[in-house]
Specification:
about 290 residues, alpha+beta, rod-shaped
Amino acid sequence: MLQFDEKADRVVPPTGFTARLTVFSSFAMAFLAVFALALSLAAGRVAERWGDELAQSSTLRISAPAGEGVTQTEAALRVLRTTPGIVDARALTIDEQRALLTPWFGADIPIEDLPLPQLIDITETDEGYDAAGLRLRLAAEAPAAVLDDHARWRRPLIEAASRLRILGWASILLIATASAAMVTLAANAALAANAQVIAVLRLVGAKDTYIARAFVRRFALRSLTGAAFGTLVGIVALVLIPSRGDSAGFLTDLSIQGWGWVWVILIPPLSGLVAFIATRFAARRVLEELA
């Protein structure tokens, strides 16, 4: 599709304004496309990681009256350790609960003087356990125990990840549309600026397809070149963003991994294809108007 007649490109004088506009717009759009793609992929990775972690763990909270906390904690642990689908159940220590509260209340919080509930961390198998049945057993053995299977946390994460993916791909589609619009405007300007040249070419027998081929080739190659540089600069910018590793959120873990690189590599040729289609449409319309 992108095989053009180089001689056809030489018959039309180049216009500096449209050349710079096409290259710059392709550069900018490719740069933004890299970040939109990275944001979509990173948000999906983080949400999937958080969802997997929450899906394999639960929390039991025991808010018992004074003097009954230890007894009900031991009863709850016995129930948990004999429940199919639970790998381990462990009561958090005072220091571990203090570490959980430190980000909110500071390191000097007198946790021993606070009526805090006893937390039990539950590790599940991949298949999980019967939450409804476990709640019935806990109600009989440890009435003060409240089970949190993290379902209410997983659902918003999955919904947020889906919406962020949709937002990322919608942004890429919007970028492609804006790029096509800019190339169309530049092609229209170039065709209008060369109206006299087009008239002369027609007088000597040149067909409209031959004339259009010159503009299509020129704008497709300019868009391809600008998009290639924009993609390269976008990748360098992503590499320079500091990452905090697996614990990072999607705003600090903007990176391309795995099959995501295939989409990045496709940005320049897709940009050239968009320019090819847009210029071909613009050339056909303008040549019909000049006929």
